[in-house]
Amino acid sequence: MPRLIHALGPSDRARLCRHFLKLNDEDRRLRFGGALPEEMIRDYVDGINFDRDRVLAAFDSQFAVIAVVHVGQVDGTAELGLSVLPAYRREGLAQRLIQHAVKSARAHGCQRLWIHFMSDNAAMAALTRKLGMRVESKQGEADAWLDLPIPTAVELGVHFYQVQWDAVLGAWRQWLPQVA
Ligand SMILES: CC(C)(COP(=O)(O)OP(=O)(O)OC[C@H]1O[C@@H](n2cnc3c(N)ncnc32)[C@H](O)[C@@H]1OP(=O)(O)O)[C@@H](O)C(=O)NCCC(=O)NCCS
C-alpha cells in the first residue's frame, strides 16, 4: 500500500526530532554534513520556521516519521534536505518526497530546486541522476539542480486542496499519543 505524504507543522516538532535521532552518525553526516549530537538536532528542529519552510513526511502506522524532506526557500530557489529511516529505504520514498517537494515549490513560486550533498553519498548521486538533475561536484561536495516549470491552474488547485487536508490532519495528529 503506498504511504501517504503530508506536511508537518509546529506541533510535529517532537515527532520530527525522534526521526532524526533514529539516524546513526553516518546518516547524520550525510544528511547534515556532520554527525550532529542530540542537542544540535533539537536546535535544528526547534529552529524550523514552518511559516516560511515546508516539511513533508511519510509515516508508519503509529504516525512516526519514517521519511522527511525539509524544503527551505530563498530567492526563488527551493533547497531540499532529505532522510529516510534505514528500514524503509529503496521503497521509492525519497523519490516521492522530492516529487511532492517539486509540486509544493512550484506552487510557492520557486523556479529552481537545489539539493546539496556529500560527493561520497552514492544513494543521492544515483537518485539525483535518476530524477534528471544537473549535478556539480567540487571538493567532496555536490550540488544538484533542477529547473522548475510554472504550475498550471489545475496543479495549483490540487496543491492548495492538499494544503487544506494537511492542516486538518496536522490538527488531528496533535491529539495522538506521542509514542513513536
Ligand atoms: C539518500 C536517501 C534519502 C534515499 O532514500 P530512499 O527512500 O532509499 O531512496 P529511493 O527508494 O527513493 O530511491 C530512488 C532511487 O535512488 C537511487 N538509490 C537510492 N538509494 C540508493 C543506494 N543506496 N545505492 C544506489 N542507488 C540508490 C536508485 O536509483 C533508486 O531507484 P531504484 O530503487 O529504482 O533503483 C536515504 O538513503 C537516506 O536517508 N540516507 C541518509 C541521509 C542522506 O543521505 N540524505 C541526503 C542528503 S540531503
- How many strand segments? 7
CATH class category label: Alpha Beta
* CATH topology (fold) name: Aminopeptidase
Bound molecules: coenzyme A
Tell me the Rg in angstroms.
16 Å
Just name the CATH architecture.
3-Layer(aba) Sandwich
Q: Treating each run of at least 4 consecutive H or I residues as one helix, how many helices?
A: 6
Query: What separation lies between the terminal Cα atoms?
Result: 21 Å
> Approximately how much helix is present in the residues?
25-40%
Q: Which ranges are low-confidence, i.e. pLDDT below 50, for 5 or more consecutive residues? A: none
Order of helix and strand elements from N to C terminus: EHHHEEEHEHEEH
How does this model look, in words?
The chain is an alpha+beta fold and 180 residues long. It has one domain: Aminopeptidase (3-Layer(aba) Sandwich), CATH 3.40.630.30. It has six helices and seven strands; from the N terminus they run E-H-H-H-E-E-E-H-E-H-E-E-H. It has helices at residues 13-21, 25-32, 38-46, 93-107, 122-130, 153-173, and strands at 5-7, 54-59, 65-74, 77-84, 112-118, 134-138, 141-147. A seven-stranded mixed beta sheet has the order 1-2-3-4-5-7-6, sandwiched between helices. Strand 4, helix 4 and strand 5 (112-118) form a beta-alpha-beta unit. Helix 1 (13-21) packs antiparallel against helix 3. The mean pLDDT is 93. The chain binds coenzyme A. Residues 27, 30-31, 81-84, 89-95, 115, 117, 121-124, 126-127, 130 line the site of coenzyme A.
